[in-house]
Structure formats: structure tokens, C-alpha cells
Amino acid sequence: MKSYTSNIGQRLFNDLRLLCDYPFEQRCGAILQTVFPSITATPARSEMDCAGIDHCMFDENTDRLLFIFQCKGFSAQEFGSSQLAQCLHSIEMLARSAFTTEQYGLIVNRIVKGEQRKKIEAALQTLANDGKAKSVRLLDMEAFLEMVFQEAQAQLAKLLKSSVSAFQNQHRLRMDESVYVESVPFRFEENDVICNNPLKLVEERILKLVLTPTNKRSWTLISGEFGFGKTSMALHLAESLHKHGITCLYLPAAQFRKKAFENEGTFLWEALKVVLQEEVDQANERNQIFHAALKEILKRDKQIVFVFDGIDEHPVCWHENGLMNIFGIFKTFNTTCVFAVREEFLAERSGQFQAAIKRGPGAFTLRLIEWPESLILEYAKNYQRGLPPDAQNRISHFEEAVRTGHYVDYYGDIPKRPLFLKMLLDDVAKDDLRTRNLAELYSIYIAEKFEFDRSTSTSNPVVSRPLSLQEDYEFVCARLFDVMTMAAGQMYSIEAGEARLDPRLSEIKLRECAKTVSGDSLDLPSILLNSVMVPVGRRDKHYQGGYIDVAFAHTSFQEFFLAHHILASLLQKNSDTAILNATLPKPVTRFLTALISTLSSDDQSKIRTHPNFTCDKYAL
């Protein structure tokens, strides 16, 4: 299949076939301008016109001619001796002129074959031999349109590369990403073995696939909970593949409007809008050509990689038909695809996701996981470079705390996730956090995480992750805090007088907490995508009746929200008195002490008069 057999290609073909003389010349010029905007028609009776030149294009910085086109639109139904003579005369006029060019094309609106074609091609070759043009072509309508579409595809390939760079720069600015670490830990699907450097593994795998002559398309899923760098990895992968000469189309899901996935044609229009980073007029002929060229690339070019980032961020993906439509579109493309998606989505919509990718190309999934202390140190060392001496000293104290294992006492276990590690280091560079109120710090970080969730993983999103509670963000964030506090209050047990954390909670109980807090306004996806609670495992109809368990993303988050729950008990805002008689884990006591210190004097007095309160117990 050729590009010119697309709808726009067939229409242009029919237009050219019916035109002759000057209207044909004008139409050819308009089509050429879709891919060569600076090409111009020569003025009547000018020296160029006398040389038979109809359209030309100069080099931007010199007087050198890059293109010369002569257009021969005949009214006769067939190409005969008269038409041959006119073509040879036009070539001769250029040959006698003083003009030279890089490329010359003779555009003819009739099929030229046999001896007549040989004579024209011989005359064209003479032009080349005499140094009048480096490249010469006889272009019938099919060849002319194919040239235009091939140029559109070549320009698209450049646009794809520049769009990846633009997205990379936007991401670095938005996330203030000055440090990127490749050798991060990950696991393969259904495998507990920890591996390192997922970027290198995916890059090598894709290069091997696309560079093999008989390559078979495949899908790769980069998964992981929030804050493990899926978008960073996807963008670095696209950037790296470009360096290897592989065209890569990076598309963030959040920049697609809700109707984008209704069918393949609509999707391609939206994809073109994302690549160009501007609104696209579908009635514009240039855009129609680029739309067809993009379709041709995705359908026919096996050496292109399609990176679709943030499936979980698009509301359509949370609906069965929407997810089926999206992957139904991807199945029609002949490209190697990479999808970045939150584990929260894969767990909560496991059945729908598996149904949507069924009968798709072979796929494998890798999951980004918590960082070890050695990687935290590597990141901190790289982060430290270029900072003022006093900031470097504070980062050095942080590194020492990590090396000695004392960092958990100061910061909790959240540095194991790069999102929070970056937040911590930003604050450590400004101030010594060891003296800061840890509860206040966690409140700030969780609120910032919520803001990141709402802003999606790209700049200028047109949609955002599902959030069923349509209220002001401050109100929504407060309700999410209430839900997590109530959940933490159900995730402990008392053994021998000591409170012990239970690592997980049934989704049924979490839904009950949400209903108590906000009625039916907060659904499970909204909680999992906008809080610091994550699913444990994926839905399975053969396990727990298809229900999943949930947990806090880090133990220190659970300790923080359990402290909130205990504070509510001391203020008599809930009826849980059992935990007030138990010995608390030290981190919970530390958070509780920090929370109490932020209260008004009246509330502190209320706590001091509580029958279960002792100064020694809460370190006050």
C-alpha cells in the first residue's frame, strides 16, 4: 500500500488528473507547499519563467536552488508525440538557461511509458551529466504524490525526534530532574528475582527486535507504583533509541482528549496534535497529508517504536470499552510498543486490562521497585554536585545517616522511593531536617504527591486521573487524609500490650472507610491514584472472590496515619480507646509527639487531661 492511496492521496490524484495547463501548475504548487512551505511559483515572463521553471525553492542562507519543478498538465487523454515534444522542449529550455539546482522534477499528469518515457529519461540524464541538476526525476501523478508523502514522512520523523526532546526538557523542568539513575531495581512479571538497569534491558531488547529483518512487533509494559520514575525511564528510552537511529514516537496519554480513542482516525489526529504541540485543523490539506503519512509510518514501518506513557492517567482507560478501544487501535499498528502504567491501575483493573491486550503481540512486563540504600547514596552523591558548600555538608550528613541506617529515625523509609527522595534532598539542601517536625514534613510531602497526581506526568494535560469527588483540591486532600487515618486505625493489633502494625487491609474495609468519610463520593480508583495507599497483588477471580488488599506505600506512612488516628482518639473524635492502653511503636510515638506539638494550647490541655494520657508515654 502506498501513501497516496489514502483518502487525501486519492482525492489529490483525482484533482490532478482532471486539471491541465495553468490550473494544473497552480495545483501542483499548492501540493508542494504542504511539505515545502518556502517553495514559490516563478513570476510570469521572468528569466526563470523563460527557462520553463514553474516552481522553485532556494536554500535559506544562499542563492543556491534546491528544487526546480516543471509542470506539464495536458488536456489530451493519452500521452502522445505532441506531449512528448512539449516535455523535451521544457527540459531543453532549462538546459540552455544559466540555472542549476540540487533536484529537478518534471511533473506530468499522464502516464508515460515505453519509448516515450525512455526519451524523456535520457534528456533528464543529460541534464544531470551536464551539471544542471544533481538529481532528476520524471514524476507522473503517482510518483509525484509518493514523493510528497515520503517527504511528509521524513519531516514527521524529524518532528518525532524533536518532540521527544521537547517532552524530555518539559519533564526535567517540571520535575526539576537534575539527576537520573539508570541502574534501578526491577522485577519481571511473576518473578521475585531482583534485577537492575531496566532501561538498558528494554533498550537492548527493542534494538534487537527492530533491527532484525524479520522482526516481530512486541509490547513492553513498564509498571510500578507512583513515584518510581516510569515517565523518566520512558523518555530516556525514547531519547536513547533516537541516538541509535530508531524513530520513536512518545505520546503522553494525558494530552489526548476524551474522544481521541473512538477510532483509529481520531486517534491519529490527536497524535498529530500532540507531536506538533498545536491545534490541528483537520480541513487543512497539509495536516491531512501528515495525518496519512503518520498512519503509513505506524502501519508499515517496523523500525519505529511507539511509547505511550500514563495509561492510568486517562479516564477512558478506566472503562472497559475505552480500554478495549485503545488497545484495539494499537493492535492495528505494525510497531513495537512500550506502555508506562501505574501498578495501581494494573491491580485494580486487572481483568479488563488482560481482556484488552488479549490477542495482541507478545508482551512482557517489568515492575520498578523500592531502591536499596546503596542507590539512595548514589543518587544523593550525584545530587550533591554543584551545590554550595553548606548545602553539600547537609547532604553529607544525610548520606552518613543512610550509611549508618539512622536515616529511618530521622526521615522514615520514604527515601526508598525517588519521588520522596528528591523532595527530601531538596529540603535537606536548604535546612537540616533532623530538627524539623517530621509530622509536618510528611503532611507537606503527601500533599505535594497529591498535586503531582492531579497534574499528571506531562505538561499541558487535557485530562487527569479519575477523581470521583468533584470538589476543591484542599477539600479532597483533607478527605483523603481522613480516609487514610481511618484505614490506619483498622490496621493494627495488640499483642501482649503492644500495638503492632498489620501490613494490609481488605479493599472492602477501605471502601467502608471512604463511605464513612464521604458517602459514595470517593471510589476505590480515586483513593489508589491520589493517596499513599497502594494495592497488594492484582485482582484474581480465584483468590478472595476477586477482591484485593491494600497497604500503605511505606511503613512510615502507616505510622504517620496511625498517629493521626491516636490523636483523634485522645481528642475524643473517635471511640477507639484500646490503642490508648497499648505500648506504641517508637516511630508512631515520634509522629504523635510531633502532631501534638502543632496543636493549639486548648487542644494540648484537653489531651493532658485525658485519662489514658501520660507525659512519659508520649514524650511530652
Q: What's the CATH architecture name of the largest domain?
A: 3-Layer(aba) Sandwich
What's the CATH H-level superfamily name of the largest domain? P-loop containing nucleotide triphosphate hydrolases
Estimated structural class:
alpha/beta
Strand content: 5-15%
> How many strands, which pairing sense, and closed or not: the largest β-sheet?
7 strands, mixed
Strand adjacency order, main sheet? 7-6-12-8-11-10-9
Number of E-type strands: 17
Summarize the structure.
With 620 residues, this protein is of the alpha/beta class. Helix content is 51%, strand content 14%. A hairpin with a 6-residue loop joins strand 2 and strand 3.
Structure explained in plain terms:
There is one protein chain. The protein is α/β, with parallel strands linked by helices and 620 residues long. It has four domains: 36-139, no CATH class; 149-368, 3-Layer(aba) Sandwich (Rossmann fold), CATH 3.40.50.300; 373-434; 473-618, no CATH class. A seven-stranded mixed sheet has the order 7-6-12-8-11-10-9. The chain starts with 6 loop residues before the first helix and ends with a helix. The model has no long low-confidence stretch (mean pLDDT 91).
